[in-house]
Amino acid sequence: MADDQMPRGSQCRELEMAIVGAGFAGLQMLHRALQSGRKAVLFEAGSGVGGTWYWNRYPGARVDLESLEYSLSFSKELEQDWEWSERYAGQAELERYLDHVTDRFGLRPHIRFDARIVAAHFDEQHHHWDLRTQSGEHIRAKYCVMATGLLSAPNRPDIAGRDDFNGVQVQTGLWPKQGVALEGRRVCVIGTGSSAVQCIPEIAKLASHLTVFQRTPVFAIPAHNRPMDPAEQASIKAEYARLRELEMQSLAGFISLKFMADPHPKNAAMKVSAEERKAEYDRRWAAGGLSFYNAFTDLLMSKEANDSLADYVRDRIRERVKDPVIAEKLVPKDYAILTKRLCADTGYYETYNRDNVTLVDLRETAIVRIEADGIRTADGRLHACDVLVWATGFDAMTGALDRIDIRGRDNRSIRDHWAGGLRTFAGLMCAGFPNMIFMNGPGSPSAFFAPIQLAEYQADWIERAVDALAARGLDCIEPTDEAEEEWVAHADAVAAHTLLPSTRSWYMGDNIPGKPRRILIYLGGFPAYRDACENGAANGYQKFRLGRAPASAGA
Ligand code: NA7
Predict the structure, then answer these.
(1) Which residues, including other chains, have CB under 8 Å from residue 409's CB and lie 6 or more apart?
(2) What pLDDT does residue 1 have?
(3) Residues of the chain with pLDDT under 50
(4) Is 511 in the pocket of ligand 1 (CB under 6 A)?
(5) Which among 36, 34, 29 has a CA at the least distance from the CA of 3?
(6) What is the pLDDT of residue 375?
(7) How many CB atoms lie within 10 A of CB 488?
(8) Nearest residue to 145 via CA among 18, 248, 24, 319
């Protein structure tokens, strides 16, 4: 048994660092902490590593960024050794990859599986966190790193009658490991976000009938997934350092491999001719995937520029759907493209050309209730089904944190701290919650950047902070109220320059009833984000209050 492995049972174990969540971020943090010789243990609710890629096992689940980009960069040997089998890895391959990483770097003995953290309370006397798992285990840790995921708290809409349903109900983000029998069954899918766009084509191939309930249509771009070309993989690996550098300089954290020669947008869409604009959109459409984020400099800022891209994609959608009435229902018309996450699809729109697929537009006829045999809509119809798939998304960014009973100074809960709207310093920490640090947290670029690369930077920032405190004989760090206010005002101001606040989306907290509306991601790009984090740490952590536990001070 490794020295730092947690004992089971009710005994309390003292740690320097508790890490919560065994996804890309938590595993990187654990690796860094162990390398520094810290007494660190990672707690994971699931029975295996993977985070997003452990829980999202629905048919068609796959990453929407190219795998050569969506991968760990802290180990050059790992970068070279791992051979991706597809342009966009599927869930199983990503899970295998993270299993490999876990064993390759000797992390497994330091992970406690099936250990969901349900409470974390700060002890002001001793400056540590008291954590409790669902099974009642007690852990005491000086630092608590929350790598709980940005899209990991499933959203279960409160639709009347859902407990009356006699068939099988399943949520995309909690898809059972043993799978769900879909062959020859009548399936209903509620939701048409990224997860639905991926699973709908796969379910349609198996189900006797598939009914899709759409509230808001999405913009989806063909992913053009394919087996990885070994020559392409080798040529990218030869230039990995440059690729990683380009990613970190980009707005969205990825550049798309086809565009390595000219990775960053140079022109504003409205500064070039209509022909040039169309040529650029054609080029990116042919490449496949999400590179449209990088097409022009002003797509997120100018409504006119945004409309030019939205109109282009609308026309492409119409070309893919045979029935013009269904096509119009699938074409988004009332929000700016890119202000809800763009989807990468494989045959999504063509699925609606199949005889066994029905689209129900909830704007025409809303769901009234779930009944024993299916879903009743306002037009009186019962959409019979055997399997009901909830593809209804997540309580994004904050949900994985504020569903835990986190209490900082004065027993104040994180839920209370955010009751008037999200408040953090750089998505890293909150005033009044010392020594608790978030990775890919709300208020950081996270979902609008490359979460893996962001986590790598944050793990480094955390390591430096903990070392800096130790070097000064201190054991407590938290941002000042002013630093938090300043960050929130800055993040709000940056967002106000974009079109994102004009759309109802999970980026703004709109998908969860009662959630205060505020931008949940930082849109200023990684270089500006890194500058803010470094500036916060400059001059002896000028944006933070540092301290020493009263108990040890008196000793
Ligand atoms: P998303 O993108 O949040 O999609 C959720 C979908 O579920 C979306 O179409 C919602 O419609 C729909 N929804 C949510 N609640 C309801 C109710 N009550 N009734 C009908 N429809 C509803 O989640 P995903 O899991 O697809 O993707 C999450 C992220 O993972 C994605 O952005 C990528 O970054 C990867 P709405 O648009 O709110 O009208």
Answers:
(1) 122, 124, 432, 433, 434
(2) 35
(3) 1-9, 554-555
(4) yes
(5) 34
(6) 98
(7) 18
(8) 18
